[in-house]
Amino acid sequence: MASYAPLFVNANDRRWKPDAIVFNSAQLYGTPSYWVQQFFRESSGATLLNATLLTNSSSSIVASAISWEDSENAKSYLRIKVVNLGSSSVNLKVSVDGLGPNSIKLSGSTKTQLTSTNLKDENSFMEPNKVVPSLTLLENAAKDMDVVISPYSFTSFDLLRESVSMKMEGTDSFSRSSI
């Protein structure tokens, strides 16, 4: 579960920052804080995995890894979330232990990134999509991969896990499992 307060603010009576959703009588927009909350909402019910972050950059990188199933399509993912608090890009080698050789599908994995070149950037009624996540297909998806983390960014790598059908010993039924 994720929560955020205050959630809504009327643009004509804005007393508090940050808020998640700004509205007036005719329109609304989500703030960057709103979009960060979306990263956590989408993977509720996830299993937190043990993760170790080895990097030669300063303490500007924070990361976590979870295993989750998309409720809309029942596909299993390994999600790696990385925050770069620093002003420079960071080259990161992602290495996932405990997975079989072909456990990550070569297609269907994505990278979602929320970033802006200016830390003071905000969405507004004039520019409601100035700071929003961008979704791209991840072409080098694997249990071992090199990635670049942009400065001042929140990045999520959703690695689609391979599913296999296994015949249960002594029965005529099949079980579907994620590796």
UniProtKB/TrEMBL annotation:
| Domain Alpha-L-arabinofuranosidase C-terminal positions | 1-153
Q: Which domain of life is it from?
A: Eukaryota
- Which terms does the UniProt entry file under GO BP? L-arabinose metabolic process
**Does the keyword DNA repair feature in the UniProt annotation?**
no
Q: What Pfam families does its record include?
A: Alpha-L-AF_C
Molecular function as annotated in GO: alpha-L-arabinofuranosidase activity
Q: Gene3D superfamilies annotated for this entry?
A: Golgi alpha-mannosidase II
**What keywords would UniProt list here?**
Glycoprotein
List the InterPro entries: Alpha-L-AF_C (IPR010720), Glyco_hydro_b (IPR013780), Glycosyl_Hydrolase_51 (IPR051563)
The record's section on SMART domains has: Alpha-L-AF_C
Concerning PANTHER family, the annotation shows: ALPHA-L-ARABINOFURANOSIDASE 1
From the Swiss-Prot or TrEMBL record, give the protein name: Alpha-L-arabinofuranosidase C-terminal domain-containing protein
According to its UniProt entry, this protein's organism is Citrus sinensis (Sweet orange)
Q: What is the lineage of its organism?
A: Eukaryota, Viridiplantae, Streptophyta, Embryophyta, Tracheophyta
